[in-house]
Design brief:
By secondary structure, this protein is α+β, with helices and mostly antiparallel strands. The chain has 15 helices and 21 strands.
């Protein structure tokens, strides 16, 4: 029956595609089965699955470029558990209004396994800060903006996707909305539906390693909330995470306290108890107002583009090692993909193919960000995994040059250009820290 339905759609769709360069045609409706109605237009039609920063940014770019766009989001009221830190460059690049920012963090403390504390914000300039947002606030704003630019918001659960029978026949999206099964025919799909992406599964994009993030939002007494007015804390050590870090990030009237791990997912609640114990004097008297957990990808998927389907954000695996940052990269990948489709389709006037998506989206993404992701991957391999390595990392973070390079790269999303002399000094300091922490020395003795 599915094949018969697709054939019914494909015949008129092919004739419409011959006239895509003209925008004067009225939509035509094709009825398949008794309950399904497909509307075929003379312009490219796109579906974006997932309404977070990646999906909303993609939908806004598509709709702004003249492409008929449908943005699917299952739970607009929900919020992904997330530290909520976004870099300075994102405010201007994505026109994020200041009223969405809960806190402007100008102090960042990193606390080692032995409770060695380093102030990591000494090199911030007067105008620089890290923005803290609540995901439910940011995501809702980005979705509404996509709608303002012409995207159709669909509150629905996507249940399955039928692949096309030919290069120019449509994808059929099956979804449940208001307890009713519906279907929609589209030319191109952007999967922005997170680590457990249905879109990725539908195109056999392969699997990847996922961490799990666990977070509690805790409303603190006013006097204790003042301590976190513009301060964020990162705690590292095997007690709070064997391969990641734990955090205390300030929000409007509460703090987000959480941790993440790849190798010890079954112990995530024990790790969460450990971070709460380490910060106990600072959060004592607080009330838990929300508990959240979510998978976070650890590396890009083996396949990010197949046919006329592209993956962005967490669905593509765009979360950095060491920091676990993903909001900016989600929004940037979504916009980059949407704009690439607009260019390749000539504002929706021509059909696109896999080659277009690879050229206009995937290649541009890898050219711009591959080095950043690779560098942070190496950094994590060197320092994470043992308390000795983490002690060495915190020691290095106390150096002003390391802080300046880190913040320039983080705030503006470009690998900072270093000073050759300072780079040599930093390399020597790194080796020294590792030796003092017994990492290199231990490996030499084992040989």
């Amino acid at each position: 029956m599915a094949a018969q339905t697709l054939n019914t759609i494909n015949q008129p769709l092919h004739s419409f595609r011959q006239t895509l360069k003209s925008k004067t045609f009225n939509p035509q409706t094709i009825r398949c089965r008794k309950t399904t109605t497909f509307t075929i237009t003379a312009t490219l039609r796109a579906a974006v699955i997932g309404g977070g920063p990646a999906g909303s940014s993609a939908a806004e770019a598509l709709a702004s470029g003249g492409i008929e766009t449908f943005l699917f989001e299952r739970s607009p009221e929900a919020a992904k558990p997330c530290g909520g830190a976004i870099p300075l460059c994102m405010l201007d690049e994505f026109s994020i209004p200041s009223h969405l920012i809960d806190r402007k963090v100008t102090q960042m403390k990193i606390i080692s396994p032995s409770n060695l504390t380093v102030d990591f914000g000494k090199t911030l300039k007067p105008h620089e800060f890290i923005s803290m947002v609540r995901r439910e606030v940011l995501d809702n704003f980005l979705r509404r903006r996509a709608a303002d630019h012409g995207a159709t918001l669909v509150k629905a659960l996507v249940t399955s996707i039928d692949l096309p029978l030919s290069e120019k026949s449509p994808y059929i999206i099956h979804y449940i909305s208001n307890n009713t099964q519906n279907s929609l025919a589209v030319d191109v799909i952007i999967g922005a539906d997170g680590a457990n992406s249905k879109v990725a599964k539908s195109i056999d994009a392969g699997s990847y390693t996922c961490a799990i993030a666990f977070q509690e939002r805790i409303k603190l007494p006013e006097e204790k909330m003042q301590y976190y007015e513009n301060l964020a804390e990162m705690y590292i050590g095997n007690d709070v995470s064997p391969d990641f870090y734990a955090w205390v990030f300030p929000k409007c009237d509460h703090v987000a306290v959480g941790t993440g791990t790849i190798s010890s997912k079954q112990n995530i609640k024990h790790l969460q108890c450990a971070i709460k114990n380490r910060v106990k004097p600072k959060i004592e008297g607080g009330v838990i107002i929300k508990v959240e957990a979510h998978p976070i990808p650890e590396h890009p998927r083996p396949v990010r583009v197949r046919g006329r389907v592209a993956l962005v954000g967490d669905a593509a695996g765009y979360v950095t090692k060491c920091s676990g940052e993903g909001i900016y990269f989600a929004a940037r990948s979504g916009r980059m993909c949407g704009e690439g489709i607009v260019r390749a389709s000539e504002n929706g006037r021509r059909m696109i193919g896999e080659g277009d998506l690879r050229r206009e989206y995937l290649r541009k993404w890898d050219d711009e960000f591959f080095a950043t992701f690779k560098f942070l991957d190496v950094l994590q391999r060197v320092f994470y995994g043992s308390n000795a390595g983490l002690e060495a990392l915190v020691e290095l973070c106390g150096k002003e040059y390391v802080q300046r390079m880190t913040f320039e790269s983080y705030l503006y999303k470009k690998l900072a250009k270093g000073n050759p002399v300072e780079d040599v000094k930093m390399a020597a300091a790194t080796v020294g820290s590792l030796i003092r922490s017994n990492i290199i020395g231990r490996e030499i003795l084992m040989r």
